[in-house]
Amino acid sequence: MKILFLSTVKQKICIFIFVLLTIAIRGFADSFSATLPFKRVEFTTLPNTTKDLLFSVKPGFAFHNDSIHRLDFRYNDHKRGLKPYIVPALLITTGTILHFSTDVKENFQDWAQQNFGASGRVDDYILYAPAVAVYGLDALGIKAKNNFGNRTAILAKSFLINEFIVSGLKVSVNERRPNGGVHSFPSGHTSKAFVFAHFMNKEFGDKSIWYSIGAYSCAATVGVLRIVHNAHWVSDVVAGAGFGILSKEVVYLTHQYKWDKEHFKSLDIFPWSGKQQKGVALVYTF
Question: How far apart are CA 207 and CA 118, in angstroms?
Answer without folding.
Answer: 36
